[in-house]
Amino acid sequence: MRNKKMTILQSEITVGSEQYQKNKEALLAQLNEVRAIQ
Predict the structure, then answer these.
(1) In this structure, what DSSP letter does residue 9 have?
(2) How many angstroms separate the CA atoms of 30 and 38, rounded?
(3) Radius of gyration (Cα) for the chain, nearest Å?
């Protein structure tokens, strides 16, 4: 039981970090656009 919970937790962390990377890249792209305008 405990191993199953750990596996689920690890997969959630993996998905979360992938989502974080996408958000970070999107924010950096927006920041670069703002800098280009100025």
Answers:
(1) H
(2) 13
(3) 17
